[in-house]
Specification:
Length: 84
């Protein structure tokens, strides 16, 4: 069993999950965890189910097809200090 220190984080409390435990449970930065009280005064921490698919920018750009874009729209002459 590993011990961690609880720290103040704004109006809440937080603790760090040691790398070995995070790796063994496949917990990564940005993941959502579900917390609930456990019997005997403990804390039960589980990795929450993912809500929908997470996209990476590279995947989105790979699916970009220039042929599916809208044509350029002429908005008229510049009226101020715009640089064209």
């Amino acid at each position: 069993m590993q011990h961690v220190q609880v720290s103040k984080w704004g109006n809440s409390l937080g603790f760090r999950i040691p790398r070995g435990i995070a790796d063994s449970l496949d917990i990564q930065a940005g993941d959502t965890l579900a917390l609930s009280p456990a019997e005997g005064g403990g804390l039960l921490v589980k990795k929450a189910e993912a809500k929908g698919k997470r996209y990476a920018l590279a995947d989105i750009l790979d699916s970009f097809a220039p042929s599916s874009t809208h044509p350029e729209v002429d908005s008229g002459q510049a009226r101020g200090e715009e640089l064209w």
